[in-house]
Structures are given as structure tokens and as C-alpha cells.
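Project outcomes to date are best conveyed with an example. Our students and postdoctoral researchers have been running inverse folding experiments weekly, and each run begins with a structure described purely in C-alpha cells. The record below, which covers 118 residues, was selected by the lab manager from last quarter's runs and is presented without edits.
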């Protein structure tokens, strides 16, 4: 029977450094093992999964903090992205009406607000 694969301390450092940008399949590719082997290693050695999850959570926290700071500093794209992701905002479908004389009237419907009749 083959000996179970164990990650070296250096490989675990790689997992910690790369977890923020690579998923488990990509990490397995980097380590030159199958994703199934990587998952079995994580099941046997809780330290590997703990390092992986902590590194991902840390990166997400840093990115989230940067996003919120950019939004608070007035970046409209960051504000919209945050509201869509965290506030479940979504853009309403645009109603476009074309009348016979060739002019175009475009109205934006915002949920809960009716457009003015002009």
C-alpha cells in the first residue's frame, strides 16, 4: 500500500500564500497533485484546511475593507458593487418607447418610484 501524501512545511507555506488567489483545484495543480489528493490531505491534516480557509478569509477581509473605503471615499463603482452584492440591489429593466415621429423616450424605472407623466 502506498504511503499517504503529506504536505511539507514549505508546501503548507505555499498554500497559505496562494490560497487568496487560487482555488483548491489550482492549488493542487501547483503542488503537482490531484484535487482529490489535496482534499484527502485536508481531511487528514486539519492544519492544511485551516491555513487555506484562514488565508482566504484574510484576503476577503482586506479586499472588502478596500472596497468599503473606496465607496466611502466617493467611488461610485465601488458603491454600486457593494450595494448590489451586500444590499441585494439590482438594476430595474429600462423601458424604451419610440413614437411615430422618430423621437425616443427612455425612462428608468426604480423600484418603488413611479416615473413622472410628462
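After processing, the design step wrote out the following sequence:
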Amino acid at each position: 500500500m502506498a504511503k499517504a501524501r503529506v504536505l511539507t512545511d514549505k508546501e503548507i507555506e505555499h498554500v497559505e500564500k496562494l490560497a487568496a488567489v487560487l482555488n483548491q483545484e489550482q492549488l493542487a495543480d501547483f503542488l503537482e497533485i490531484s484535487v482529490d489528493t489535496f482534499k484527502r490531505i485536508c481531511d487528514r491534516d486539519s492544519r492544511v484546511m485551516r491555513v487555506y480557509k484562514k488565508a482566504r478569509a484574510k484576503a476577503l477581509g482586506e479586499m472588502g475593507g478596500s472596497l468599503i473605503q473606496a465607496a466611502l471615499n466617493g467611488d461610485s463603482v465601488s458603491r454600486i458593487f457593494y450595494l448590489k452584492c451586500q444590499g441585494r440591489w439590482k438594476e430595474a429593466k429600462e423601458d424604451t418607447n419610440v413614437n411615430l415621429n422618430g423621437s425616443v423616450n427612455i425612462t428608468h424605472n426604480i423600484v418603488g418610484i413611479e416615473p413622472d407623466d410628462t
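Residues 25 and 35 are 5 Å apart (CA to CA). The chain has a mean pLDDT of 86. The training component of this project remains on track.
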